[in-house]
Design goal:
About 55% of the residues lie in helices and about 0% in strands. It has about 90 residues and is mostly helical.
Length: about 90
């Protein structure tokens, strides 16, 4: 068994500078995971996918594999909406 020994800090605080592997960020770096633009595109795409999947399910209700068709329709709508909204908002 090995033990990692670190030098003691004078004030007991962990330094804020570092690299991305440790999860700490550099001073002045943006702390958000997604930009507002990316979050809006993904959110609108999920909404479009849910609506398209729901309409596909309602349209294929008599078919045995209606849920599978709805999932495929929603996934295709999600991918298409991301590309469309990315080109529109750009």
């Amino acid at each position: 068994m090995s033990k990692i020994v670190r030098p003691a800090r004078s004030n007991g605080e962990v330094p804020r500078t570092g690299n991305g592997e440790t999860g700490s960020r550099r001073p002045g770096e943006d702390p958000r995971l997604l930009t507002l633009r990316s979050a809006a595109i993904l959110g609108a795409s999920v909404l479009i996918a849910v609506i398209a999947g729901g309409l596909t399910y309602l349209g294929t209700r008599g078919v045995i594999a209606g849920l599978a068709w709805a999932a495929l329709g929603g996934g295709a709508a999600f991918a298409g909406a991301i590309r469309l909204l990315n080109s529109i908002i750009d």
